[in-house]
Design brief:
two-stranded antiparallel ribbon
């Protein structure tokens, strides 16, 4: 567990959902509590980046707020990396209820010599289920200064390892690990999953 942390991004507005996605109940437990509990098996330090810290006071994690407000997930990643005590960090969105520890551990094993380890599923990147090193802080800051808040905008400036779907499926048989909840319809599907 040494020199690795988990950062959970929970600062979104949840505008399409209409309520805070971190506290949606799956199996009678809020997603955020399931994530924290699960990720304690991966890393000792769990950080939650949010905009309403009072909502998370009963959760056993380090709670911080966005250093630069209104910059979306990129700002959350930047804030989390700066607050982390680890070089390598697994960053995940709070609306991904099916994260698997064995896959996260595998991703950490692939991370030495890289700044980003990101899954590529059906041709699409999963940047909110990825490993980021502290080496990303300055490139992210540069993107924010330029007004480019696209999540992968800084990737050309760092060392990125793309994990193929074939390789990932060696560690998980379920594509649902990348499932995220944005709408009530997504939430209904998650309950069925």
């Amino acid at each position: 567990m040494e020199n690795k942390s988990v950062i959970i991004l929970a600062g979104g507005k949840s505008s399409r959902m209409g309520q805070n996605k971190a506290f949606l109940m799956i199996n009678n437990i809020p997603i955020i509590e399931q994530l924290v509990s699960n990720m304690k098996l991966v890393a000792e330090e769990i950080i939650i980046v949010c905009n309403e810290p009072e909502l998370y006071q009963d959760i056993n994690a380090k709670i911080i707020t966005d250093e630069i407000k209104g910059k979306g997930p990129l700002g959350g990643i930047y804030t989390g990396l700066k607050a982390s005590r680890s070089w390598l960090n697994f960053i995940v969105a709070c609306d991904m209820p099916f994260v698997e520890t064995n896959l996260v551990n595998y991703m950490f094993k692939e991370a030495p010599n890289f700044d980003v380890v990101v899954p590529k599923i059906n041709g699409y990147l999963e940047p909110l289920h990825a490993i980021y090193s502290k080496g990303c802080i300055e490139p992210i800051e540069n993107c924010i200064k330029r007004g480019n808040f696209k999540l992968v905008a800084f990737y050309p400036e760092v060392r990125v390892k793309y994990l193929t779907e074939e390789k990932l499926l060696d560690f998980t048989s379920h594509r649902k690990v990348f499932y995220n909840i944005n709408t009530q319809e997504d939430f209904k599907k998650a309950l069925n999953l």
